[in-house]
Amino acid sequence: MSLPRLALAISTALLFGYTIVGCSTSPRSVSAASVKPDTDRKIAPEFTLKDADGKVVKLADYKGKVVLLDFWATWCGPCKVEIPWFVEMQRKNKDRGFEVLGVAMDDEGWEVVKPFIAKMAVNYRILAGTDMTAQAYGGVDALPTTFLIDRTGKIAAVHVGLTSKKDFEDGVEQLLKDAPPAGGITVDRDGAAVPHAGGAK
Question: What is the mean pLDDT of residues 90-108?
Answer without folding.
Answer: 97
